Amino acid sequence: MDRFTLQSLNEARRQRQAAILITNLASGVVRLVRENDLGLDLMIEPALSQILPQRFRSAHSGLVETAEGDQFFLTVHVPPPRLVVIGAVHISQALAPMARIAGFDVTIIDPRTAFATPERFADVALVPHWPEDALKRVPLDPFTAVAALTHDPKIDDLPLQAALAANCFYVGALGSRKTHAKRVERLLTAGVDAADVAKIRAPIGLAIGAQSPAEIAVSVLAEVVDALRKRGAIASGDAA
């Protein structure tokens, strides 16, 4: 790999951008493709162009052989996914350890210091500040999921707006349909685009009939993982 390609890869990783190193096994030539470059004229084999979106979603490296017999090795570099949970509530206590097992970096944000305590959230990053201050320490990006769980507009609404603006791959909010309808009104009044508001998963979690905090946490994590593995699939027309 030449120095320029290595520097480009390191820069992509610093910026938490997904990138794939494509190595032509016959020539030894290596090139870098960032996920942000998909859709541009990359001047690569059509077969590779069709494969790359799915590889970005699966984060799976491996050998690819085209119909013409050309072999390429794809080395996929994807930022570790993050889950930012708004609210140090009972659901969060169950969700945080499960999400960590699933490979997510987890952060809990809640200004209510009686709830956001190390005793309730062992080995989890806690930010006991109001979201407008907390999000300065926890920047959001397309590889971050945000789950708003407090039921308190003063705490939930700003992170939801920030998550939509940052194009987070998942944005979910706890609450009934009636509660969410009021949330939608507030966000639209605040100037959030209706198309963006429609991206919020609410009521949060897959519809599995969850009742207990632990069951709701399972449904939320399943929905987050589903969203992670389907990033961009609808826009690209690839349902893999």
Element layout with pairings:
Layout lengths: L2 H12 L4 E6 L5 E5 L11 H13 L3 E4 L5 E7 L4 E5 L3 H12 L3 E5 L15 E3 L3 H7 L6 E5 L4 H13 L4 E4 L3 H13 L4 H4 L15 H17 L3 H4 L4
Parallel strand pairs: 5-6, 5-8, 6-7, 8-9
Antiparallel strand pairs: 1-2, 1-4, 3-4
Question: Gist?
Answer:
The chain has helices spanning 3-14, 46-58, 90-101, 131-137, 153-165, 177-189, 194-197, 213-229, 233-236, and strands at residues 19-24, 30-34, 62-65, 71-77, 82-86, 105-109, 125-127, 144-148, 170-173. It is α/β, with parallel strands linked by helices and 240 residues long.
Q: How would you describe this protein?
A:
The protein has two domains: 3-77, no CATH class; 82-229, Rossmann fold. The protein is 40% helix and 18% strand. The chain has helices spanning 3-14, 46-58, 90-101, 131-137, 153-165, 177-189, 194-197, 213-229, 233-236; strands spanning 19-24, 30-34, 62-65, 71-77, 82-86, 105-109, 125-127, 144-148, 170-173. The strands form two sheets. A five-stranded parallel β-sheet has the order 7-6-5-8-9, sandwiched between helices. Strands 2-1-4-3 form a four-stranded antiparallel β-sheet, with helices on both faces. α3 links the parallel β5 and β6. α3 packs across α8. The model has no long low-confidence stretch (mean pLDDT 91).
Strand percent estimate: 15-25%
Rg, alpha carbons: 20 Å
**Largest beta sheet: strand ordering:** 7-6-5-8-9
**Low-confidence regions:** none
What is the distance, rounded to the nearest whole angstrom, between the alpha carbons of the first and last residues? 31 Å
CATH topology of the largest domain: Rossmann fold
Structural class category: alpha/beta
Mean pLDDT: 91
CATH class of the largest domain: Alpha Beta
Q: How much helix is in the residues?
A: 25-40%
Structural domain tally: 2
Order of helices and strands: HEEHEEEHEEHEHEHHHH
Indicate the CATH architecture of the largest domain. 3-Layer(aba) Sandwich
User: Given the C-alpha coordinates, what overall shape results?
Assistant: elongated
Q: How many beta-strand elements?
A: 9
